[in-house]
Amino acid sequence: MARLTVSAHFVTAALAGARRQGYDTHAMMREAGIEPELIEQEQARVTGNQYTRLMQVIWATMKDEFMGFAPARSRPGTFATLCQLVIHCDNLDCVLRRASHFYGLFETGITMPLSIRGEEALITLETEAPLSDDSHRFLRESLLVIWHRLSSWLIGQGIPLTRVSFDYPEPAHSHEYRGIFHAPMLFDQPQTGLAFPVRYLQEPVIRDELEMRHFLMTSPADLMARPDDRNSYTARIRALIGRDFTQPIPDFEAIAQQLNTSPQTLRRRLRAENTSFQEIKDNLRRDIAIVHLTRDQLSINEIAHRAGFTETSTFHRAFKKWTGVTPGAYRSRFCS
């Protein structure tokens, strides 16, 4: 599965707990293949593989799956043990209730209980005490992502969210949520949580223990770097476009036809998912370029070609708009 790139904001946010406890966060970034100078650039991004590795380094170094944000440590292996318990559930309802009970056994002070209100199921984040130095709201955001994507993976189909609620004001990085949740987002709400159609609670768990072992080799560290693999229009358009921008890509009308909908309806549905056709294309081009810059020895001209640009100068302007620096500066300053 192709990875997304991840905003440097989430690198800073993920390391906040370690920094507060006195860990050498620069060493942790370098171990993950990230140059510390990178996160000083507001618009910079890291590859999905770098971000996944960083999360693994944080967990292993701190020996805390909650990364220093909760009142008590969540010892390494807690999440894996939970996954081994829920894999034997009959359906998603059992998964979510068992998971909430499991985390309630520990002193971390964090649970995510399930409730039902009419035709909606809600998973809400509850904390017994304020989270430590989570001014970036990183732990709250990452728990929402983990539980949405784990739930979708367990039942073998994407769970469309009807809304995502946050108990804090809209942050400056909220635009990054568009590529994560694909749902209406509400801020300054009484609770932080996810809402989805209640019918998904009766969907059966289709994974087995062997699949779970493979899943746990990289997850949940990689879940924020994965594309949302549910059956959203964003995901379906990404699949239709592909990642080979050296060939002509379908135009919007052709995409709509392949999705058996009208262009007007497709635009409306993309707006509901907080995105647009142009943004989907731009994000794919951006991610392709960053991956090649960090991984390959290709020339800037060749990377521009692979990202779908006929003129290198146009690629330079677009890349600087996306990341704040030119492709050459990105490679020389940030790629180890």
UniProtKB/TrEMBL annotation:
SMART domains: HTH_ARAC. One of its GO terms (molecular function) is DNA-binding transcription factor activity. GO terms for cellular component: cytosol. It comes from the Bacteria. Gene3D superfamilies: Homeodomain-like. PROSITE patterns: HTH_ARAC_FAMILY_2. Residues 235-333 form the HTH araC/xylS-type domain. Keywords: DNA-binding, Transcription, Transcription regulation. InterPro entries: AraC-type_N, Homeodomain-like_sf, HTH_AraC, Tscrpt_reg_AraC-type_HTH. This is AraC family transcriptional regulator. Transmembrane segments: none annotated.
